[in-house]
Each structure stands twice: as structure tokens, then as C-alpha cells.
Design brief:
alpha/beta, 14% strand, globular, Luciferase-like_sf, LLM class flavin-dependent oxidoreductase, oxidoreductase, Bact_Lucif_Oxidored
Length: 363
């Protein structure tokens, strides 16, 4: 099982000081977070993609390429790659280039994002969001798997005898997760292709997550990729920790109360009760994260959000230290206990290459 960090890259004032970091500071902070994740033994760093203030990660592959040069083991991913408004040709080329630079330590998460105005900025219609996701991804798969592509669709100009360059590393495209919070169509898309499904459940109660994951698992089996238990599932989570749980609640409350997304809404207590957000001790984070398996089954990837709502970098790095030193080692052990042998590990470039070579040898 893989554990890691995902960031949405928000530039938010610190409610305890009133200071807003500069864009440069926030970008550099995201890099520092990624390097800390590798230092403490986490597996994955994922960045979002946004094209509007108050966010900075408009060019994920630029950031991930920089991080690749400074790391050795960390898997570099996205927590959203906008399959709806990015050109599939550019996605194919950018991530293949990143694959080569990172020696295969790359996967990505397709999503539609949550910012409506981004569609007209890139010449698209938000009412076509699902259709764009379906058509663009179908083209992206062909670009990675066929050396020469002839294609015609609804949302971009046709391609005639087109070859995307560079070709995927070792002829193996990056593994794709389809990220969704609320759309069953995306769970269906992930199942159809046998890709991973990442349910970013940070705002939703367990029963909603359960329904979405069960839908994906059942449809994965329907399309003949394996049993429901063999489907590839990832989950989100949010944590804030101190060794004394009361200290964690007291310190995090002003950030929660003023957060751009959920501030001035439900209380911190209600939100932690109803969603995966855990504010407390490392042991409380361990217990709540382990409970995800009760409704999602044995899954492959757990990513935590720790750097939002204006939290200072020093505090965020302390959170990652606690994850690496006290939380994740226990989670690895506990999640492995009783895990059926039939449940696959999270895909990596090495495992995908081995499977491709085995399939080729069998032909």
C-alpha cells in the first residue's frame, strides 16, 4: 500500500497572523513538502492543477520534473490533471517526458476540477464536462498505446498520422487514476478501462464513499478486469496532529474556521465526526484511517492533505514528520495484516513493465 501527500496549492492568509505568502513562497513550500515526504519515507507526492487565484500549480509537470531531479524514490503524481480542458496531445507528451526524466516514477489522476470558469478560459463548455472527460481520455489512451494515430472526435481538430513524442518510457504509459468526489460516471470510466479510482472523500461521509467505491468495484468486475476486491482504489484524507489532542484542536481551529472551502460552515467537531478529517493525536489518526477499510475494503493508496488553509510551512513539515515517524509505519503494518493475497499492490512502472513483458512473452 502506498502512502503520501497531496496538495491543492492554495495561497491562503494565515488567520493567526494575517500574512499571505507570496506565490513564490507557496511554490517553494510545495517543493519542500515533496522533499520532506521522501525524507520521512512516504511513497507519493501529488499536486493539483489550477488556473485561477488563489492557487499556484498551473503547470504540474514543471513542478514534478523539478522534484524528480531532487528525489530518488518518490512517486510523482497529480491530484488533478484536467482531462476536460487540457489537450490530450499535450497531456500525452508532457507526462511521457516526465516519465523519462523521473525514470518511471510517475502516475497521474484525471479529473474535471471544481472551477467552472476554467472551461471557457480554455475554449470549452462546462455543460460538456462529462463528455469531454470521456472523449479526451479515450484519445489520450490511444496516443500512449499507438505509434501512429488517426482520430476524429467532437471537441478538437482531427489527427492524421500523428505520433506523440516522446513515446512512453519502455513502451508503458503512466498508470492512471480517475479522481472523483461525486460523479458515478467517472467511477464507471475508471472501471471500463481497468484503471484506478481515487475517491477524494475529504468532504464526504463514509456512506457516500462506500457507494462510490462499491460502484467502481462492481463495474470493474463487470468489465472482466478481475474480482471486485482486485480493483485499484485510492482515498483522500485530512489530518492535523499534535501529541496532545487538545493542543491539536486548539491550534487547528482558527485555520479550519477560516478555510476558504469549509470555513464559516459546520463546526470543527461536526466536520471531523462526519468526514475523514482527523484533528488530534497520531494514535487518533491511525485509528480513523484504519477505519476506512471497513467501508472501502482493502485499497492501494492513501493520500493526506496537510498543507491547506494558510498553515505555515514549519507546521506542515512537522505534520509530515509525524506521519513518517509515528503514523505510516503503523498503518503499513496494520493494513498488511489480513490483507488477502489476491488483492494487488498499487501499480508502479516496474510492475506495469513486468506485466507487459509477461503478456508479450505469452503471445
Amino acid at each position: 500500500m502506498q502512502f503520501g501527500i497531496f496538495s491543492v496549492g492554495d495561497v491562503t492568509p494565515d488567520p493567526t497572523t494575517g500574512r499571505t505568502p507570496t506565490e513564490r513562497e507557496r511554490i517553494k513550500a510545495m517543493v519542500a513538502i515533496a522533499l520532506k515526504a521522501e525524507e520521512v519515507g512516504l511513497d507519493v507526492f501529488a499536486t493539483g492543477e489550477h488556473h485561477n487565484p488563489p492557487f499556484v500549480p498551473s503547470s504540474p509537470t514543471t513542478m514534478l520534473g523539478y522534484v524528480a531531479a531532487k528525489t530518488e524514490k518518490l512517486i510523482l503524481s497529480t491530484s488533478t490533471t484536467l482531462i476536460t480542458t487540457n489537450d490530450p496531445v499535450k497531456i500525452a507528451e508532457d507526462f511521457a517526458m516526465l516519465q523519462h526524466l523521473a525514470d518511471g516514477r510517475v502516475d497521474l489522476m484525471m479529473g474535471r476540477g471544481n472551477t467552472g470558469p476554467v472551461y471557457p478560459w480554455f475554449g470549452q463548455d462546462i455543460r460538456e464536462g462529462i463528455n469531454l472527460a470521456i472523449e479526451n481520455y479515450a484519445l489520450l489512451r490511444r496516443l500512449w498505446r499507438e505509434d501512429v494515430v488517426n482520430w476524429e472526435g467532437k471537441f478538437r481538430t482531427p489527427l492524421q498520422g500523428f505520433t506523440s513524442t516522446p513515446r512512453p518510457l519502455d513502451g508503458v504509459p503512466p498508470f492512471v487514476w480517475h479522481g472523483s468526489i461525486r460523479s458515478p460516471e467517472i467511477a464507471e470510466q475508471a472501471a471500463y478501462y481497468g484503471d484506478g479510482f481515487f475517491h477524494n472523500n475529504i468532504f464526504w461521509p463514509a456512506d457516500h464513499t462506500k457507494r462510490m467505491v462499491e460502484l467502481y468495484r462492481s463495474r470493474y468486475a463487470h468489465y472482466g478486469h478481475g474480482t471486485p476486491e482486485q480493483a485499484i482504489v485510492g482515498l483522500g484524507g485530512q489530518v492535523f496532529m499534535r501529541h496532545n489532542s487538545q493542543d491539536a484542536v486548539r491550534e487547528f481551529r482558527p485555520y479550519f474556521d477560516n478555510a476558504p472551502v469549509y470555513g464559516h460552515g459546520p463546526s470543527l467537531e461536526d466536520f471531523t465526526d462526519q468526514t475523514p478529517l482527523t484533528v488530534g493525536s497520531p494514535q487518533q489518526v491511525i485509528e480513523k484511517t484504519l477505519s476506512f477499510r471497513e467501508y472501502a475494503g482493502d485499497y492501494q493508496r492513501q493520500l493526506f492533505l496537510v498543507d491547506h488553509a494558510g498553515l505555515p510551512l514549519k507546521t506542515v513539515l512537522e505534520q509530515i514528520d509525524l506521519l513518517g515517524e509515528e503514523v505510516v509505519p503503523v498503518l503499513r503494518k496494520e493494513f498488511a495484516a489480513g490483507r488477502p493475497a489476491s488483492v494487488p499492490q498499487a501499480p508502479t512502472h516496474a510492475s506495469l513493465l513486468a506485466a507487459a513483458e509477461k503478456e508479450e512473452a505469452a503471445v
